[in-house]
Amino acid sequence: MANKKFFRFNLAWLYGGILIVLVIFYLTNNQSYSKEVNSTQFEEIALGGGMKEITIYKDHAEAQLTDSAKRVIFGNEATENTPGIIKTNIPSSDSFAETVRHWKEDYNTNIPVTYDKSSDYGAIFWSVGPFILLIVFWFFIMRNMSNPGGGGGGGGVFNVGKSTARLYEKGNTRITFNDVAGLSEAKQEVEEIVQFLRNPSKYTELGGKIPKGALLVGPPGTGKTLLAKAVAGEADVPFFSLSGSDFVEMFVGVGASRVRDLFRQAKEKAPCIVFIDEIDAVGRARGKNPSMGGNDERENTLNQLLTEMDGFGSNSGVIILAATNRADILDKALLRAGRFDRQIYVELPDLNDRKEIFDVHLRKVKIDTSVDRDLLARQTPGFSGADIANVCNEAALIAARKNKNSVEKQDFMDAVDRIVGGLEKRSKITTDEEKRSIAIHEAGHASLSWHLQYANPLVKVTIVPRGKALGAAWYLPEERQITPREAMLDEMCATLGGRAAEELFIGRISTGAANDLERVTKQAYAMVVYFGMSERLPNLSYYDSTGQEYGFSKPYSETTAKIIDEEVSRIVNEQYERAKRILQEHAEGHAQLTEVLLDNEVIYTEDVEKIFGKRQWKSRTEEILRDNEAMKHSGDNTDTGFTSTTTIEVLEPEEIVAEAKEEKEEKEEEKNKS
Q: Which residues make Cβ contacts (< 8 Å) with residue 672, sequence separation at least 6?
């Protein structure tokens, strides 16, 4: 049954109702056909038989006219339903009553007479009341406009130019660096700001100046806002917090006014910190939209911000922190020395940082002894701090859903699967033919990743639909910083393993490899256009690091574009043929993997080892973890689990790269001879 929407009272409806009543009263009052006459005219009409009834008040008398008298006095427009009333002033009600009695005796009139002893406050109210109500209504509206708690961006219409920053007084910010896990390099950068706020004389005595602003740059969820709060908590100073969009308003000049008011308040609270989150909302490079006109509100706000940060005025003790994940679009004047002197990069956490972040978020989670923080950090490459917090929360929800007393290791595994791949959909209907096709496809990925040197080691493969995918594979990405050409080719080959397996072992291809083909095409295009890894276009990069992307024109000719298309097609075709060749060499093992997948719907690293044997190449990440464990004297940890398919790259030894190149050259020579 649909929920009924009850009428919600709004004060605006009351004001509207009062206004409507006043308008109706005004209109009806203008059409009431009442007229004031002198006493002689009143007597003539009464003696002429033109009155139906007379009402005597304290200081005046009223008479209701007959139809014929109404037409004479008010004209032919008066009808039977039109009230016709005439009024006259009298010296007193007693004297006028005596006059009416004489009319009856001398002229034989028989007009009904009534006496109204009540006061005439009603008439006074209807004449003066509407004006009083309008005055009261006006004062009420004006008070709400100027009230800081009323509507309007800066506290009402009259305070719309005031700053909307939220102020955390000294001592109210309890977040410290202990609450910020990882980010060791970023914390070192901002530590100098904290030391200056605590002991400024240490720097000023030597003639040094603390940077006026620091810009925190990094992907979403990496802890930029949390780091700014920790700076305020460590320095123990007032902290102004607001967003870049808070400066933008529909009224012209409001943004600049709010900037001035913000810095005025900051100077009064100095030393203090002003934190502007998502500064790209107001700090975008100027002149990008010339067709919008010169009086752009956002540009005016940015100009005022630039002036306040490094103008003629002094902002001693006021430090500006800002955060953005789009530093490439900021105005250059905002990033010059004297304004945001430092750019602090808050990057995605590495293996050790992820472990520290798990330590922080697991403080409030009741975990089981089976939970291994090293394993969790290893299983979440490419996760930000916000993603890790989501993993811990999702694991707690899963454990509560299963009525457990604590969160176990498997709950965290399920949480990572849920976040990376989506929710399992075992109820999705698939035919036996589709299920076998999916198993052959996923087994192809698993087989190739096991036999390629630079491919990511397999952790888990499933044919249970999850999210939008009919099957999914989890790998353990390498913690690389740069990627050699051979690693990119191996990754492309492993990605094409599903389509190659379909063609070899089914005899036809399907739409199941759409996502694989998209990834491979983009990677091949990046190799040719961005990284200069093409044989026909070596050492050329058409990547625009400024983010402009060359507008509507491309930085190469049509002939070069044709070569790029040919090179991309060649690279993809070579890796596809390579994938089919490797699968043909290990067709028996692939068939066994397919049968295991069809029986169990999931395979793990141990299942692949039983079929193909141990993997020839060791994972660099595994070696790092093993070395860390050896240093801690805590033994070897051989657990495996699910991970994201996000790849984070690590530098391989030069000897391995050289051997791979030699091996490739030998194969090419053999191919040419044949």
A: none
